[in-house]
Amino acid sequence: MNRPALARIDLDALCHNYLAARRLHGGRALAVLKANAYGHGAVACARALEPVADALAVAFVAEAEELRAAGVRAPILVLEGVFSGGELERAAQLGLWLVVHHDEQVRLIERAPIACARLHVWLKIDSGMHRVGVAAGDAARVHARLLASGRIASITLMSHFARADDVTDASARDATEAQLAVFDAATIDLPGPRSLANSAGLLAWPAARRDWARPGIMLYGVDPTGTSRLDLRPVMTLTSAVFAERVLAPGEAMGYGGNFVAERALRVGLVAIGYGDGYPARAGTGTPVAVDGRPTRVLGRVSMDMLAIDLSELPAAGIGSRVELWGPAVAVAEVAQRAGMLSYELLCNVKRVPLEYVATTAALVDTGT
Ligand SMILES: *Cc1c(COP(=O)(O)O)cnc(C)c1O
In this structure, are residues 195 and 180 in contact, taking their beta carbons and an 8 Å threshold? Predict the structure, then answer.
């Protein structure tokens, strides 16, 4: 038997979440598949979404090239835009849509070869996140410059929220409202479709709904606001199995550092998964797991290849029992919170375990390249 660690990817849930996101937002929606689809496998996710999605998005050109090489033909927006003239030409050949968020990218477009196909550009305006994006006061000038380059097929106006996920903090709400106002003022005289909402904006900010939504994390079943009632389904179920068990006597220490000490007699199961697979090393004692569907907890420090769980209250569980690290029974957001990390990080970090795709439509489970 192979090592039992496995990430099962439910492509029906992915398509369900995409359609739920788009229905709530209205208009069109980009499916954000950057960072290998947040750890879920970009090619398989793109193939599953292509029949239903208006367009896809990745962070950089090489990520889009991987999808094109796998036969994905849907429009793909490159969220970081290009880094060089060479990349611009490749992007144009592949028919990619490009974010433009600083002057150097405008210069690259102005200098593009005449033969370069006309570009669909998304002009990213800094409405207050203060990371990337052209200053709100420069938006009209950059827009005019792009049009004057003669290399442009269309311009979509976009911005990105810094704090839309924080729906309880008053200053965060003020910041998002200010971003909306800055964006609207900067673009009031400019034509073209608009796009503001990431997952949090889409879920928590009806005022941010424009022509295009850009859902990412919610496609994978995570609500970054923690408050929405939308029926989002977890896409990844990370599982492994108990491969050994032992009993700890009261006072015995277990694992690296010896800093977990049994407070009473404990029956412990060793599970074949660890931080080498992307399970967070900082998710220590008390982090929830489910054994054959029943809740229990991690004990002690997570190792590279294994971790320990408490089987004391689960007499039927033992060697071979299936352990869910996250999925329908254990919310990845709860594990993330325990580890002091983001759900985004946990999903992106998954590695070394095989990804197994499931879908009711067999045609969706098409992972060959
Ligand atoms: C990553 C990204 C998104 C998706 O964000 P989520 O929080 O995962 O929904 C949307 N827009 C831009 C510009 C991004 O970089």
Answer: no
Whether 213 is in the pocket of ligand 1, judged by its Cβ within 6 Å, is no
pTM over 0.85: yes
Classify residue 361: in a domain, yes or no: no
- Tell me which of 214, 344, 348 to substitute to probe ligand 1's pocket, judged by most ligand atoms within 8 Å of the beta carbon: 214
> Does residue 214 sit in the same domain as residue 261?
no
Residues belonging to the active site: 34, 256
> Does residue 356 belong to any structural domain of this protein?
no
Domain range for 198 is: 11-220
- pLDDT tens, residue by residue, 144-196: 999 999 999 999 999 999 999 999 999 999 999 999 999 999 999 999 999 99
Beta strands in the chain (DSSP E): 6-10, 28-32, 55-58, 76-78, 97-100, 119-126, 134-135, 152-158, 194-195, 212-213, 236-248, 253-254, 260-261, 266-271, 288-291, 294-299, 307-310, 322-326, 355-358
b/e sequence 302-341, b meaning 16+ C-beta within 10 Å:
bbeebbbbbbbebeebeeebbbbbbbebbbbbebbebbeb
Provide the CATH number for the domain around residue 284: 2.40.37.10
Determine, yes or no, domain membership for 231: no
Q: Count the domains in the chain.
A: 2
Residue 270 forms part of a structural domain: yes
Note the pLDDT of residue 113.
86
Best mutation site among 79, 99, 127, 183 for ligand 1 pocket (most ligand atoms within 8 Å of CB): 79
Q: Does residue 143 have its Cβ closer than 6 Å to ligand 1?
A: no
Mean pLDDT of 53-70: 98
Q: Which CATH number goes with the domain that contains 93?
A: 3.20.20.10
**Which atom of ligand 1 is nearest the CA belonging to 215?**
9
Q: Is 214 in the pocket of ligand 1 (CB under 6 A)?
A: yes
C-beta of 216 in contact with ligand 1 (< 6 A): yes
Instruction: Please work out whether the CB of residue 32 comes within 6 Å of at least one atom of ligand 1.
Output: yes
Q: Is the same domain home to 202 and 289?
A: no
Residues 167 and 284 in one domain: no
Q: What is the pLDDT of residue 368?
A: 42
Residues 212 and 101 reside in one and the same domain: yes
